[in-house]
Amino acid sequence: MRSLAILGAAGRMGAALTRVIGETEGARLTAAVEHGGSAALGKDAGVLAGVAANAVAIAAGFPAAGAADVWIDFSVATATAAVAAAAAERGAALVVGTTGVGADGKAALAAAARRVPVVFAPNMSVGVNVLLQLVADAARLLGPGYDLEIVETHHRLKRDAPSGTALRLAEALAEATGRDLGRDARYARHGDVGPRTASEIGIQTLRGGDVVGDHTVFFLGLGERIELTHKASSRETFARGAVRAALWTAGRPPGLYDMRNVLGLA
Prior knowledge:
Helix content: 25-40%
CATH topology of the largest domain: Rossmann fold
Order of helices and strands: EHEHEEHEHEHEHHEEEEHEH
Shape: elongated
């Protein structure tokens, strides 16, 4: 049995994680935390998630040392560096699905990975991580005669843009085609921008309603196009992937992993 802690337990992803952990053989929720000012403090995590009470009260701060084998973090990007340092200090494996993580957070995750297993992915969905493999294969097979574009759509409350998944898809395309994403990414077009260059990778963002997450990669050739799309209809798809990653860390050596490692794709 793998004991798990949820960071950001009162949020929508926290509730989805609580439900999925309760349904998953070999997983047990032993800690659930929120920030100090949360109205959820002291409440039962199961009840808050809309399922049966599980006797895990939501607490402030980070889980104590030994409270859980693995911490699952879907809180906020500004907390990632502190989460990583605390997990490493307390000897807990770490699964991070937070999006919008900056350079400091990524450096902290890399430092933590020298002491504990860390799985970091901007999208924990199994389907999205298979999509990453498919788009890279398609880009290599189709060659330079196809223009590459990404369109992502999320709910109106999402703060970061483009999504972490869209950026990871762009990285996969750049790696597969030998491009420099820092130079070739095109995030917006407005006015007289001139003809599209052959090397650019377009990344466009849509926001509205309650869309959980849609991503489409376009391969646009002369006389034909291919579209590869993933649509998430429930946050529980991300929660299932995160719990799968948490169970996968059992017996793993310290290191920085992603969902490709979890799925055996890398």
